[in-house]
Write a structure and sequence with these properties.
The protein has 401 residues and is of the alpha+beta class. It is built from ten helices and 16 strands. It is 21% helix and 37% strand. The radius of gyration is 22 Å and the shape is globular. InterPro entries: DUF620 (IPR006873).
Length: 401
Amino acid sequence: MRKLCPTDREDALDTVLEVPIPKEMYSGPITGMRSWLKSQMFDKASEADASAGPSPASGPARPQLAARNAELQLLLKLGAPLIPCPVPHDRAFSRSIRDSSFQASTAMYIIQQYIAATGGQAALQSVESMYAVGKIHMSASEFQTGMEDEGTRQKGNSEYGAYVLWQKNPEFWYFDFIMAGCKLTHGSNGQVAWKQSSIEKSHVTPGPPRPLRRSLQGLDPRATANLFSDAMCVGEKNIKGDMCFILKLDTSPATLRARCTPSLDMIHHTIWGYFSQRTGLLIQLEDSQLLSMKSNRARRAGAENSIFWETSMESIIEDYRWSLLCDNIMAMMCCRYINGVNIAHAGRTTSTMLRYGEGSVNHKLRMIEEWLVDEADFNLWGLTPEYFLPPSDLWHNEEDA
């Protein structure tokens, strides 16, 4: 990944990029990288509003631009999802296994094994902040119009991207994500989660602040343990020859209501974690959510019909560096950790989106994302809460409202 960009002056230092550029995104000579960056929309507004109608000047290219903007919004949305519910603070380290149901106490025992496998309680609780740099390859493997066999099918394009994640405990995080010439900024200051991109205005994410799902894909074992501290053990499953315990966590009705808006109702959001019985590590993460939407016209008319969106994501978490190679305590002690914490460095996420409902054209979209952590570290000096403040225009919009 390229982290520096040459400047126009020969006697000047190179510019350090906020988000490194994967070689797959820019394969040209390094001398032309600055011109290529200026041609992208990373920090520019959209060239046209996708919701506007066709204009004589734009002609037939206008619908293509609207479709492209819709595709980019989908890529950015699937690249930075949030987990279903807030993470309790260090509940996994203080909750007692006693006085709990069999399913709950079994889940707590599994979490204790996971804590030991990722470095131990002392190492996890010593982490106050972290950052990670990685690259992503996303592709639309299937797009189907109509749920029946006669529906049309087509394959989409593939795009490369990169991201930088800064985090100070689960409540404070900042995420920069670039893909296909666009940039997404997503963050939380502990009170409100917000999002903005080069093709979309800044807005607040409904509901209580929640961590980024990407941090639970093997990057933040402490938050993962705390999240599943309230889960239930619902069975076992064989994943690629490795028997795993299944922990299930349903979002509370209060959290679902907090995430609702006048035009959107959250029906359910459930997350599953698959923990290896052999290593104790999290090797698969799944979540599924169902929501219903009503257009402004339907709400004004009092119509009952809604459009339903069902989204499911399945992440295979790999490359813990020693989970498949070390079979004894002495070998584990010789393996590479980061500040005593064992994290995953690669994985693959499959996302499926279904749209259906009365008066709606049914759609099915399947996306595949391959991700790789290029660099990570913990306990960063100088990372203060002021770093995670929302954009200034977001506060101005709220004051005007």
